[in-house]
Amino acid sequence: MARIYIHNKPLFLVDHISKEVEEYLHRPETIFIDDFNAAAVKTMLHELEQPQFYTGVFLHNNVDALLAAFKEQLNVIIAAGGLVHTAENDVLLIHRLGHWDLPKGKLDEGESLEACALREIEEETGAYGLAIEQPLQTTYHTYRQNGKNNLKESHWYLVKAVEKTPLTPQTAEDVAQCLWVPLADVPRYIDGAYASVAAVLKEGIRLLQK
Fold first, then answer.
1. Residue 168 near residue 178, CB atoms below 8 Å
2. Which of 17, 109, 120, 204 has an alpha carbon within 20 to 30 A of 183's alpha carbon?
3. SS3 sequence, 94-138?
4. Burial of 122 (0-12, 13-18, 19+ CB in 10 A)
5. How far apart are CA 124 and CA 116, in angstroms?
6. Which residues touch 38 (CB under 8 Å, ≥6 apart)?
7. Measured between alpha carbons, how far is residue 37 from residues 48, 54, 66, 68 in Å?
8. CA 105-110-114 angle, 5° bins
9. Does the model's pTM come out above 0.90?
10. CB 125, CB 178: distance < 8 Å
11. Which strand (E) or helix (H) includes residue 55?
12. What is the pLDDT of residue 49?
């Protein structure tokens, strides 16, 4: 299964109907398509822009091919970022454009995803002494900018910080606030995050609580 957030609405790309997805199919605000062609992909993108639909489910036996078809319809931007935590499990959050977020940014030419994640975290927050522990997940979300429909493919990593370093928000990138939050308090910030970031936070909490 893959998931794309279309204007913060979840679109599930699936090769079978799981219990999680089946629950959405019984709701009138869900659009379901199982006919895979370019027109169907465009229809799904269009319908999820309408206020009466909140969720999309697209069924096809090859999820990778389905994801590739959506990428063909959108301007793909590759980014990387991280969920940073200390040994005491304080988690680094930022506040940007009215939402709680995690530091991330666009991949530079010739740069590895891991190097991009560390660079963006350092630039956006001023944190240092960072090391990548493991990949976390990849998220997809759409947005419009300069008349283009963009699909941001964000590669997330679990990142260890040596300590709770002083933080400085990168206001040039609309970062208004950076703060260390105890792991137990992170769930109360999730409702104020974009849906794709909320998914990363939930996965990070799950791993750190092991």
1. yes
2. 120
3. EEECCEEECCEEECCCCCCHHHHHHHHHHHHHCCCCEEEEEEEEE
4. middle
5. 12
6. 69, 72, 73
7. 17, 22, 9, 12
8. 50
9. yes
10. yes
11. strand 55-59
12. 93
Measured CA angle at 73 (ends 69, 74), to 5 deg:
115
CA distance 193 to 131: 24
Q: What digits encode the pLDDT tens for the residues 21-76? A: 999 999 999 999 999 999 999 999 999 999 999 999 999 999 999 999 999 999 99
Say yes or no to pLDDT of 210 above 90: no
CA 149 to chain centre: 17
The one-letter amino acid at 139: T
Alpha helices in the chain (DSSP H): 19-25, 38-47, 63-72, 113-125, 187-190, 195-208
Cβ contact 158:134 at 8 Å: yes
**Token pair 């609405």: residue:** 9
Interatomic CA distance for residues 113 and 126, integer angstroms = 19
Sole residue written with tokens 């309408």: 50
pLDDT digits (tens, 9 = 90+) for 156-208: 999 999 999 999 999 999 999 999 999 999 999 999 999 999 999 999 999 99
